[in-house]
Write a structure and sequence with these properties.
alpha/beta; 8-stranded mixed sheet; Glucose Oxidase, domain 1; about 25% strand
């Protein structure tokens, strides 16, 4: 991972998802928040990284499973680099899982920071023991083998109602997930850092017993 990317992730992880959402509103960048169905399934609920994307579609009915599909699917993780977050669009399917303990075990040593699945995941207890982070719509024990095929890797996908391009900044915490396009990352981080600074100022002043209405005149709520 480049030093620039590392600095971006360090800055991001000092913030929180809601601050980036507020910052996006400030600059008129709409639709950065994944919908509320994308929730953290793991004990570790905070992660930031850069999107490595994959799209899955239903396998043809009654077709024998093509093992080459598994190689393509695994390449989504085996070719990942430090700082990536695997982001998968399951095309609305929730009757099997696109993520589990094997992929987590492959990805973590490579520096993969988490997985965001518009669909379902399994093996959550095992994944928790790895201190890995997974966001998804829920859990399902079924395998994707024979049910889903890979349509694309490293192409734009829709995850949680947001279009995600490879390399977009992904940030998740207990409130949900935001997606920041690459050409807006610096602007959003600067605005979000100001949001967090204002929040801290408000907290200090409220603890001192200051009147909220007077505070809002002095430094408006972000």
């Amino acid at each position: 991972m480049t030093n620039k990317k590392n600095i971006i992730l360090q800055r991001t992880l000092r913030l929180y998802v809601a601050a980036l959402s507020d910052a996006a509103d400030e600059i008129g960048l709409n639709q950065v928040c994944m919908d509320r169905g994308i929730i953290p399934l793991t004990e570790n609920k905070r992660t930031a990284g850069f999107a490595r994307t994959g799209k899955m579609v239903r396998s043809p009915v009654n077709r024998p499973y093509d093992e080459a599909q598994l190689d393509t699917f695994m390449s989504l993780v085996t070719r990942a680099v430090d700082g990536d977050i695997i982001t998968i669009d399951m095309s609305g399917s929730t009757d099997c899982s696109a993520w589990g303990q094997v992929l987590s075990r492959i990805g973590k040593p490579l520096g993969v920071r988490g997985a965001i699945i518009d669909g379902t995941s399994r093996d959550i207890d095992d994944i928790d023991r790895m201190n890995f982070t997974v966001f998804a719509r829920g859990r399902h024990p079924g395998t994707m083998r024979g049910r889903m095929d890979m349509e694309s890797v490293q192409e734009p996908v829709v995850c949680g109602g947001v279009t995600v391009h490879p390399g977009d900044l992904i940030f998740g915490d207990s409130d949900g997930v935001v997606v920041i396009p690459t050409d807006h990352i610096e602007d959003i981080l600067v605005h979000a850092e100001n949001v967090v600074s204002t929040d801290k100022w408000w907290a200090e002043k409220l603890d001192e017993g200051r009147d909220p209405h007077e505070l809002h005149k002095e430094r408006p709520i972000p």
